[in-house]
Known about the structure:
Elements: E1 2-7, H1 28-39, E2 43-48, H2 55-65, E3 69-73, H3 80-92, E4 97-101, H4 109-115, E5 121-123, H5 128-139, E6 152-156, E7 159-162, H6 192-197, E8 202-205, E9 208-209, E10 225-226, H7 229-243, E11 247-250, H8 259-271, E12 277-282, H9 289-297, E13 300-308, H10 312-317, H11 324-336, E14 340-347, H12 354-366, E15 371-376, H13 384-391, H14 397-406, H15 421-436, H16 439-447, H17 452-469
Parallel strand pairs: 1-2, 1-3, 3-4, 4-5, 8-11, 11-12, 12-13, 13-14, 14-15
Antiparallel strand pairs: 5-6, 6-7, 9-10
Amino acid sequence: MNILFVRVPLESCExxxxxTFSYFGEPTGLNYIAEAAAKxxxxxxxxxxxxxxxxxxxxxxxxxxxxxxxxxxxxxxGYDNVTLLSKMxxxxxxAIKIVVGGPCTFMPxxxxxxxxxxxxxxxxxxxxxxxxxxxxxxxxxxxFDFREIDGLAYRADGHIVExxxxxxxxxxxxxxxxxxxxxxxxxxxxxxITTILGTPxxxxxxxxxxCSFKCNFCGVSEPYRKRDPEKVVSELEWLKKKHNARxxxxxxxxxxxxxxxxxxICSLMIERNxxxxxxxxxxxxxxxxxxxxLMRRAGCRVIFYGIESFSQQTLDVLNKGTKIAAxxxxxxxxxxAGIQSLAYMMLGAPGExxxxxxxxxxxxxxxxxxxxxxxxxxxxxxxxLFESAVQMGVVHKHCGEMGCLSGDIDQIPVFxxxxxxxEMKDLEMNVxxxxxxxxxxxxxxxxxxxxxxxxxxxxxxxxxxxxxxxLRFC
Length: 474
């Protein structure tokens, strides 16, 4: 079968004529799924609308390639494009099967299919096994049973049937995709990541799957599983030789969730003298000074910490499971190890006041963090926080779901009894500007310059931050 994978863009396709979303990384998940399908004998192609967001570009690919199956991978933000694109594809050939997957499937599958009659199937969670199996069955002439496919929602006899998601891939068995379907040089152009790590190519890969933590604002429910460290480092080695990779981002939810696993990967990177510069996401309670020093020796230049708040009350409300002391200890040790830090921060949690948010911003500045990204706590359909808000009458279930289906970030409900949405947007702008445009921050960044290359990167960072954190709020 001919299979076309499409990464759906974030912005409205109806508004996009030119431009690019290249400050995002490659579609890592689609690479793995496409590889699994190719190994089953299917012809595969990936069309990334982050690079070419024009609907006409997709329709041209569909007309030329004539796929039997189109797999649409989407975030919740921008999900309205799934509706638009599936209708366009069906207009070319109604026989094409539309399969939807990706982070948007945190939403109920049945709701997605009720809302969009052009969707034939929805696959929740990891797609390597379920998607490949679905394509095998669609290619068969008889004797197939969709009930055997884990996490699949499909139409049958005028009804929508949803199979439960009960099985998860053994991460140690995952083979890396030897066919990368996009040119790496086209990604991460203009991203702050390039100002930290260096110029592209910057590649993304996984060392683990899932997450064992239970933050209630997050829809991830897949259990944590580790990939074989030997395979991880062999993939890095291959990426360097085959694609001239110099910089890597580990796309794990928490790279150091298992410290022994992280130590093993770092030791192998040092042993094989890979000399790659890389970054990763992790939690403040999953690092120690010896581990951070080992990570630095292995090439780690930046860690993205999900801090969320410096208020223990807010951390507890979000079921974050971390303590304020652990945050300060992790940030102090990260500086000692010579690694830069980026803090993901949230505002607008239940019970959080303006004064608490401004105090958080002040504490963040004093913490010595190098970069910060602020976001509003939103009620994404399918998350525990969303369900709690529905039970408490804060938001109507239908309205919340429609907000997510709209694909518009401003239509997704929030959970605050102390601030209006407009007040939260103003605070987001306020704390972002306060963080980056203080004399103390500029001096601190200047004192950490160790060579000419870092000075050039700092100049690029100032330009990036001015464009993205000042001009975009003007």
